[in-house]
Amino acid sequence: MTKSERVAAAIAGKSIDRVPIAFWRHAPDVDHTAKGLAEAMLAFHRRWDLDLIKVMSSGVYCVEDWGCAVAYQGSPNGAKVCTAHAVKSPADWGRLAALDPGAGALGRELEALRLIVRDRGDDAPTLPTIFSPLTIARKLAGDRLDADLAAAPAAVEAALEVITATVTRYAAAAREAGADGFFFATQHASRDAFREAEFRRWELPYLRRILDAIGAGGGFTMLHLHGANVHFDACADLPAAVLNWHDRLTGPALAQGKARGAVAAGLGESGTLRRGPVAAIQAEVRDALAQTGGRGHILTTGCVLPLDVPDAHLQAVVDTARSAEVRSRA
Predict the structure, then answer these.
(1) N or C: which end of the chain has fewer CB within 10 A?
(2) How deeply is 186 buried, as exposed, middle or buried, from its count of CB atoms within 10 A (0-12, 13-18, 19+)?
(3) Is the pLDDT of residue 330 over 50?
(4) Does any domain span residue 329?
(5) What DSSP state is assigned to residue 303?
(6) Integer-rounded Cα radius of gyration of the chain
(7) Is 231 within a domain?
(8) DSSP of 164-179, one letter per residue?
(9) Burial readout 119-131 (b: 16 or more C-beta within 10 A, e: otherwise)
């Protein structure tokens, strides 16, 4: 099977030759240029011969054009942060205007995507990363978002409309640039971040709107639920092709998640995969495949790899998964 065929069959729960494998890592030293990001993604892809490419744009690319200053400050997972937020008062929400996806930081990311698609050398589905509107609002404002949701909800809601329009427009441009789908991340689908009522008011409707919009363009979307205690059932009802979450840190277990649809999980990026030993990593891979039978399953980490995960540990994942027998599981 080709990589694209393997991933598509896995998502559909059909017969496959082996489970698709994917993991991803930031490249904070070079991701500020299209060429640097593309070359880093391609080198990583070729090194591990993975079944899909999750484009590791910095987690704050989406707010640079609205005026956030960003930098890498040594996070173990390579993530950059906003060192100066664009929204410093309730009035600043009203100053946000829809962005041109072909200009500035968004244009840089599209150019990186074009280079990756052009030079990947196989048909591995390539998924640029987009974020939920509320996740972007948090990046724009930092912790003051919570106060503004309480004290100036109309201002935040108007800004979320601008952000939603920008994300939708950017996603359409990414499809034109060759994206095979999207890695769509929310950092507000956790009960630790938002109670049920808040989640349903401020996050869930926007998740659905964007999924509906990007789904109309074809391809598939991997919905990433960041954090612990996630609103899994509500998100499983959304029109995403596959769900990705930290199954080794929080519920549901992989087998329970698969009962709701296709899943992308099974590897504990900050636990077993980082610490080892190799025998424990091999056991974790086998356990993940035993929970799913290798069907309806992309073997992935729950989130981004820490920068210091040893190559020997990643090799153990690849070797174990590729030698495993795929079994039918209802």
Answers:
(1) C
(2) buried
(3) no
(4) no
(5) S
(6) 19
(7) yes
(8) HHHHHHHHHHHHHTT-
(9) ebeeebbbbbbbb
Q: Which token pair is 104?
A: 């500035």
Phi and psi dihedrals of 25, rounded to 5?
-145, 140
Say whether pLDDT at 216 is over 90. no
Please report whether residue 328 resides in a domain. Answer: no
Domain CATH for 106: 3.20.20.210
Q: What is the pLDDT at residue 325?
A: 66
Tell me, yes or no, whether 265 lies in a domain.
Answer: yes
**For the whole model, what pTM was predicted?**
0.97
Query: What's the chain's length in residues?
Result: 330
Name the domain count of the chain. 1
Torsions phi, psi for 224 (to 5 deg): -100, 120
Residues 6+ apart with CB under 8 A from 248: 265, 266, 267, 268, 271, 272, 284, 302
Structure confidence by residue, pLDDT tens digits, 271-328: 999 999 999 999 999 999 999 998 999 999 999 999 999 999 999 999 999 998 665 4
- Domain of residue 36 covers 3-323
- Mean of pLDDT values over 61-73: 98
